[in-house]
Structure formats: C-alpha cells, structure tokens
Amino acid sequence: MSDKKAQLTVDGIDGVIEMPVLSGTLGPDVVDVSSLTGKGLFTYDPGFVSTAACESKITYIDGAKGVLLHRGYPIEQLAEKSDYLETCYLLMNGELPNAEQKKQYVDSIMNHTMVHESLVNFFKGFRYDAHPMAMMCGVVGALASFYHDSLDITDPEHRKVSADRLIAKMPTLAAMCYKHSKGQPFMYPDNSLSYAENFLHMMFGTPCEPSKIDPVVAKAMDVIFLLHADHEQNASTSTVRLAGSSGANPFACISSGIAALWGPAHGGANEAVLNMLREIGDESRIGEFVKRAKDKNDPFRLMGFGHRVYKNFDPRSRVMQGIADEVLSAMGAENDPLLKIAKKLEKIALEDEYFVEKKLYPNVDFYSGIIMKAIGIPTDMFTVIFATGRTAGWIAHWNEMISNPYKIGRPRQLYTGYTARDYVPLEER
Ligand code: SDX
C-alpha cells in the first residue's frame, strides 16, 4: 500500500483532516475515509458510484478500456480456452488448476449435483406459473436446512464443501424450476456428462427418451455460464457480501444474491431485452423505441444497453455476439427476426449521439437472451441461467471475505426527517 495522503478541510471543522490514500495493483487509488466518523462526518455516495466497498483479488474491470480480468486472466482468453468449472476453480483458488487438481475439482462438483429428494416437495408448493426466480430464491435458501453438517463458516472445509454444493446444485435446481413450469418429471443428473451437457440433459431430457445434446449448444451453454461467472462488486455480489458480513450461512447469502440479481436493471435485463425485442417486433419500429429511450419523460430504457462501469464496450457482449452467430447458424436460425432486430438496434444506437455521448454500449445481457431463446430456454429462465453462472463469483467473494478479517456491513445515512417531537394523543390529532 502507498504512503500517499489526502487532505480535507471542512467548513466548521478546525484544521486539516488527513486520510491515507491506498493503491491497488490495478485501478484507481482509494481514499480511506474510515476516520471521518470520528470527526462527526459521513461520506455521501448513493448507489456507491465512487465507493470501494472492500479489497479484493478476484476480478478487475477497466470500464474505459473494456477490460475484464478474472485473477488476471482476460475474459476473452478464458472464454476461448477455458471452461466454466475451470473458471470456478480459478475464481475460488486464485490459480488455474493443473490436470490433477482439475480432475479432482470436476469430480467433486459432479458428485454433488443431486439434491435431497425432499426438495421435490418444495416445488409442489409453487403454482404452475411461478416465476423461476421466485422458486430459486426459495429453494436455494432452503438448501441450508439439509446441510447442518457444514454450516460452520469459520471452518475452511465447511466453506469449500458448501461452495462445491452450490456450484453443483444450481443447474439441478434451475432445471427443476423449468420442469415444474412444464409439468414434466424432474430429470436426475447424469454425472457422465459435462457440467453444461448435464444441465441441458436435466432441462430437455425426459424419462421417455435419452437427451440429444448438440455439442455446439453444449459449448455455447458452458461459455454463457463462464461469461456470467463474476463481475467485481456488482449489486448482487455486494448483496452476498453484505449478507455474509452478518455471519449468515452461504446458502442464505446466495439466495440474497439471486433476489438482488432478479431486478431488470441488473440480471433481469436479459429477460427484459427479449421482451423489448418482441415489443419492437419489426426493424421499422426501432427508431420509435430509440426515440423513447432518449426521452427524459419516458421511463423506457433500451434494455441490454449501458453499464455503471463499462463506458466503452462490455467485452462479454462481444464474445456473446460471436456465440449468437454460431448457435443460430448451427440451429439454422441465422435469420431469426429478433437477432436481426437486435443487430439493427445495436447499429442504430451506436451511431446515435445520445448513446455515444452517454457512453451506452451493449452489455452482457444484450445478446445472451437471443442465444438462450435459440437453445429453447424460455425467457423467464434467462435470469436463472445468469444466477447459475454467477454463483461461482458470489461464493468466491463470500469465501474471500469470510477467509479474512471482516466487519459487519453497516452503512450510515444523510437524515432529512423530523427532529425530535412529542407524541400527540389521538384525541388531539
Ligand atoms: C448487469 O454492475 C455490473 O457489473 C452488472 C452486470 C454484472 O455482470 O453483474 O454487468 C450485469 O446488470 C448489466 C446491466 C443490465 N441492465 C440493463 O441493461 C438495463 C438498462 N441499463 C440501465 O438501466 C443502466 O444503464 C444501468 C442500470 C445498467 C446503469 O445505470 P447507471 O450506471 O446508474 O447509469 P444511469 O442510470 O445514471 O444512466 C446514466 C445516463 C442517464 O441519463 P442522464 O440522467 O444522465 O440524462 O444514461 C442514461 C440515463 O438515463 N441511460 C440510458 C440507459 N442506460 C443509462 N438511457 C437509455 N437506455 C439505457 N439503457
């Protein structure tokens, strides 16, 4: 860390307040403002636009350059050369596994893919048309009720087995949500398959006939999980960290992350993109929607565009667009009307001065839904897929926090309510 300092003078407070300035290996320096409370001051930063909430070694994003590194490895290289489970190992352990470590890790994950049979009963309580994200919030949190043997968060072995269980069981639970909505029997995992193949098998296989898994689709599914694996201190990861800071068990923390991801401003955007493309319906109507997105009086925003950090391109979106072309041509759907609308919309938006001036580019959610639709995944399952991939990042950040000294997260506020006043008896109101 550097010995740089920041000096602050505040009207009404004598002298100069000196604060340490800390430097990371990459990215902006940070001003340690923790001493300000002692001076009777808080910082004020709604939405945490300028706030570094923690120190982390897992993921680095340079929004100006469109850079995304997982433990130093560029996302483009991981998407091309790695796979989802290897990336999970990297996020959790900090290094790529050697052949033996990778085999052990994959075996461990694939041996935790089944869920307790009692969990089937949880699904019986959901309406047939329950949103899959509502079901996932419930059943993932409920996992804690099955693993009393490994909820001591101070025990590294308990943290590891809980992390493995969560990464392993998310695809199983996701597929159970889908099967519940279809009224079809749940499919058990087939651990002779890869992680992505197993997910597709549990989603689209039936007891009546073996799964026919297209290798192009399986590879695309694996890369989709990988591209969603982690993304620094986004809203849902910050939620997981905050929940974990109270000492809550990892299953409860991941359930809180799922809940935070659901919103259309975050992981729910992929579902919103498809609904938007369907609403646009025809390339001739794109201009009408771009106009609405620019209208301050219209709450409509172009879903899948913009990002708090990326003010250039989102590197994941570029990889995702390549997968979209591959999958749709493999499925014979290269003329998919929604893909054509998406590509035309992207072109128009990127040439429009509003979007250029506000640095709004397609994000990870813009193309992902088109791929998932082509694979046959229903729109309301898109954010469940996002949550499945992001579980690796959530649990890696949770583990990083719990493995080191931490404090319970407890932000303060700028209070603008009433000053103290006396109770008014009912008869006097
Ligand atoms: C994800 O944080 C992460 O890393 C998230 C994520 C991850 O991997 O975890 O990357 C995943 O959540 C991607 C984002 C998915 N969301 C969407 O696609 C929803 C549409 N996008 C927006 O709602 C918005 O861009 C956000 C929420 C993504 C970012 O919002 P910010 O950073 O708070 O920016 P802002 O709302 O202050 O917008 C800045 C300006 C505003 O105009 P002014 O008030 O300055 O005049 O840009 C405008 C906004 O109105 N704007 C848009 C827009 N996004 C921002 N205008 C039209 N369409 C849009 N999509």
UniProtKB/TrEMBL annotation:
Nucleotide-binding recorded as keyword: no
Any one of the GO CC terms: cytoplasm
Pathway the protein contributes to: Carbohydrate metabolism; tricarboxylic acid cycle; isocitrate from oxaloacetate: step 1/2
InterPro entries in the record: Citrate_synth-like_lrg_a-sub, Citrate_synth-like_sm_a-sub, Citrate_synthase, Citrate_synthase_AS, Citrate_synthase_bac-typ, Citrate_synthase_sf, Citrate_synthase_typ-I
Keyword presence, Transmembrane: no
One of the record's GO molecular function terms: citrate synthase activity
Catalytic activity: oxaloacetate + acetyl-CoA + H2O = citrate + CoA + H(+)
Keywords (A to Z) from UniProt: Transferase, Tricarboxylic acid cycle
Pfam family, one: Citrate_synt
CDD domains: EcCS_like (cd06114)
Family: Belongs to the citrate synthase family.
Protein name as annotated: Citrate synthase
Originating organism: Microbulbifer thermotolerans
GO biological process: tricarboxylic acid cycle
Residues the record marks as active site: H307, D365
